[in-house]
Design brief:
The structure holds two protein chains of two kinds. Chain A is mainly beta. Chain A folds into three domains: 108 residues, Immunoglobulin-like (Sandwich); 120 residues, Immunoglobulin-like (Sandwich); 112 residues, Immunoglobulin-like. Chain A is elongated, with a radius of gyration of 30 Å. Chain A starts with 9 loop residues before the first helix and ends with a strand. The N terminus of chain A is likely disordered. Chain B contains four helices and 28 strands. Chain B is 11% helix and 45% strand. In chain B, a hairpin with a 4-residue loop joins strand 2 and strand 3. Chain B is mainly β. In chain B, the strands form seven sheets. A five-stranded antiparallel sheet of chain B has the order 1-9-4-3-2, with no helix packed on it. In chain B, strands 16-17-18-20-24 form a five-stranded antiparallel sheet. Chain B has a four-stranded antiparallel sheet with strand order 5-6-7-8, with helices on one face. The radius of gyration of chain B is 22 Å and the shape is globular. Classes of the chains: A mainly beta, B mainly beta. The interface between A and B is large, with 78 and 70 residues.
């Protein structure tokens, strides 16, 4: 098995082609066969991006006699891709990478030349589930969403085939997440967002009346991630991952920033400013929605991290704090586990005549001594 | 003397021939030729002149691609293909479990069916049907233009740090009256974006915030995402017919959807349970128009626009009867598990369906269903 890169530049193609033409004419003008030694899988970024067909004797003008199909294809459907002559080798580059553990038949005309099985990528590491948010097991009955983070980009088209939820009261499989297309992955495809069916969470909506809320207070559920789920290169997780949900009462309160407990750091130190939310907040938004400013409206650069089951946020400045006034600004979109943000509840009863705050950002001042 | 006339005539003719060979219409005059570097294909829709719009969530952009597929067919034949996903998978050298058909769109001029496929490694692919032949459409060298859709919401709100690089998963697109409309979902907040983008693309993007009333729910809410939509003329006014993830069906007057404006929609139906709308199209028969909507967990629904017109109310009181849909009347067509839907012509629509035995078929519904 060789790790090679395909050379497709026009110049090398012509140069090599010309060299071979001259060589062949020198030996025998009637001889046009290309002979090579073995078939190799060409790997790129841990994916089988091409086959080098080498154990063939093929006329350079007869590339179109070659056909590669899935071994399992009853119709013998030719796989879409490009054949290229690169020196003594014929390279087949399929439209998408070949799939590990599948067999492929290589035909020259009607003759089956070889059947090759694509192995798992060489030197590949098993992907792992690095975190599941919310971190803590106890969640409100109206939990809105969960995040699943992986060490590598995952196969993306059928996530709900691999994430199942069981009601431990009767050990039954339950339908909790909204099957949404497109799936909500981050750009790197290492973090998946799943919504618990919002139509069922919202009081008295028809989905809520018909099927009830997705998870019920005082019950326990087990979220199971299948070991069969593969990363982008075809390597499976290999082991099952679990997450328990212990369902508590409904959260019907918006986060209020004036209720947050702030530990103010000392001047001349790089101690973190610690914000305690009094409840678990959205793990991903938490590190993105807050900005710290000096009195003069200059942004204080630093890093955010969460701890204590997403109940606490730490802001560590790049340079030491100075004595003086600061403030931080919070995007009102910041949500708790139930999707309640700073301005409105996820499930608001308008008959309660609550005046909704419309400010896109909220502000809180603090002084460093 | 004669020669003096001949030369300019030849020159003019040559210019006509040259300009015809490199024909650029006013819509494609700013297009460039090359690889648009599409990273994902979440939604497809056709505009005029065979221009295909591609919604790409990963690039947070929409692309307009000149397919040059503008040959009108002599007649429109119904399409019927069995084992559709299996045929695609075999052509790609993989299994059906590794691919998903993300959208399907019919070119309104050529009537050719285009569809996008995602391989599980993230590779987006575009195909076109030539008869029953599934052929790849290469995007390596095409005439195209591009508009970014990222971060308009945050930019509006002047998040000076610019940290929140929100990924908007493009849920649906439609072209209407010179504008490309895009609905999207956020991968973080439970919120929605809906914008209309002038075409040919320029810097102008309208971003209206839409407010809907959830029947049964005694509340307005502005933040539920639109999953799919169509545009229809109802009582002489162009209206956006939007279907939400929690299945209310809402009308918004198109005239009201202006930048920065907060618009209240009229909820005309709540179509029920554990369900996500998938596709919605407007059809006509005998001078009457209606829309057809496919759903993840319900049969395909048909709603007459006359019923929508006659439904004067809006659902502002709770729906109290469990298990019922409320609002405008609809007819359930005997079609379940319809995954993709698009209009072939005014009397036919093509659809992708997963049948009871698990087979995926491409089929054409004719006038009889309408």
């Amino acid at each position: 098995m060789a790790i090679k890169k395909i050379k497709t530049e026009a110049r090398s193609f012509f140069q090599t082609g010309l060299a071979f033409l001259l060589l062949f004419c020198f030996i025998s003008c009637s001889q046009k066969k290309v002979t090579a030694k073995e078939t190799t899988v060409v790997w790129e970024n841990k994916q089988a991006v091409a086959l080098q067909l080498s154990s063939l004797k093929i006329e350079t003008s007869a590339i179109d006699q070659l056909k590669i199909n899935l071994h399992s294809s009853a119709a013998g459907t030719a796989i879409l891709g490009d054949y290229k002559v690169d020196g003594a080798n014929v390279t087949f580059q399929p439209l998408i990478p070949l799939t590990p553990n599948l067999k492929y038949d290589i035909y020259q005309g009607e003759t089956l030349i070889e059947t090759i099985e694509i192995p798992l990528p060489p030197g590949s590491e098993t992907p792992i589930v690095t975190s599941i948010f919310p971190s803590k097991d106890s969640v409100p009955e109206n939990l809105l969403k969960m995040y699943f983070k992986f060490s590598k980009p995952m196969q993306e088209v059928r996530s709900l085939d691999f994430i199942k939820v069981y009601d431990l009261q009767n050990d039954s499989l339950v339908d909790v997440f909204l099957d949404l297309q497109p799936e909500l992955w981050d750009k790197e495809r290492t973090r998946l967002t799943l919504w618990l069916d919002p139509g069922r969470i919202k009081t008295d909506l028809i989905p809520n009346l018909e099927k009830g809320i997705p998870i019920v207070q005082n019950r326990e559920y087990k979220v199971v991630i299948s070991p069969e789920w593969k990363d982008y290169s075809g390597v499976p997780l290999g082991k099952e991952y679990h997450k328990t949900l212990k369902v508590g009462k409904r959260d019907s309160n918006s986060p209020v920033i004036t209720n947050w407990n702030i530990k103010i750091p000392q001047a001349t130190t790089k101690e973190p400013m610690v914000i305690r939310f009094n409840e678990a907040m959205d793990a991903i938004l938490a590190t993105e929605v807050i900005t710290v400013y000096t009195e003069d409206e200059a942004i204080v650069n630093g890093t955010f991290s969460i701890e204590n089951d997403e109940k606490t946020l730490l802001f560590t400045p790049d340079t030491a704090w100075k004595k003086g006034s600061y403030y931080f600004v919070v995007d009102a979109k910041f949500e708790d586990l139930a999707g309640n943000n700073l301005n409105r509840l996820f499930d608001t009863d308008l008959h309660a005549k609550v005046t909704l705050n419309q400010e896109p950002f909220q502000k809180r001042a603090f002084t460093v001594n | 003397m004669k020669k003096l006339y001949v030369l300019p005539v030849i020159a003019v003719l040559a210019l006509i021939v040259i300009s015809a060979a490199t024909k650029k219409t006013s819509l494609t005059s700013d297009f460039t030729v090359g690889d648009p570097q599409v990273q994902s294909i979440n939604a497809l829709t056709f505009g005029p002149e065979g221009i295909l719009f591609i919604g790409d969530s990963k690039s947070a952009a929409v692309f307009a691609v000149d397919t040059k597929d503008t040959q009108k067919p002599a007649s429109v034949s119904p399409l019927r293909m069995r084992s559709f996903d299996k045929k695609i998978a075999e052509k790609l050298g993989t299994e059906t479990s590794n691919i998903r058909i993300t959208d399907m769109a019919v070119n309104p001029i050529s009537k050719n069916v285009y569809f996008s496929v995602h391989n599980s490694d993230g590779t987006p692919l575009l195909f076109k049907l030539k008869g029953e032949e599934i052929t790849p459409v290469s995007l390596k060298s095409v005439s195209y233009s591009k508009a970014a859709v990222q971060n308009a919401v945050d930019a509006d709100k002047k998040d000076r740090r610019g940290r929140s690089q929100r990924v908007w998963a493009i849920a649906d697109m439609g072209f209407y009256n010179g504008k490309l409309m895009v609905s999207g979902l956020s991968n973080k907040e439970f919120s929605s974006t809906f914008r209309s983008i002038s075409f040919p693309f320029n810097d102008k993007q309208d971003h209206a915030s839409l407010e809907i009333y959830h029947a049964a729910h005694a509340q307005f809410e502005t933040f539920a995402p639109i999953k799919t939509f169509t545009v229809a003329n109802i009582k002489g006014k162009d209206q956006l017919v939007a279907s939400y993830t929690c299945t209310p069906l809402v009308l918004f007057p198109m005239d009201d959807l202006k930048n920065g404006k907060h618009v209240k929609g009229r909820t005309i139906a709540e179509l029920g349970a554990g369900n996500s709308p998938l596709d919605i199209i407007t059809m006509e028969k005998d001078g009457k128009s209606f829309f057809i909507m496919s759903n993840s967990n319900r049969a395909v629904m048909k709603v007459k626009y006359t019923d929508v017109e006659n439904f004067q109310g809006k659902l502002t009181e709770p729906v109290l009867e469990p298990g019922k849909t409320e609002g405008v009347n609809y007819i359930s067509l005997p079609m379940v598990n319809v995954l993709q839907l698009d209009k072939l012509d005014d009397t036919q629509f093509v659809y992708l369906q997963r049948t009871a035995n698990g087979e995926m078929i491409l089929n054409t519904a004719n006038n009889r269903w309408l």
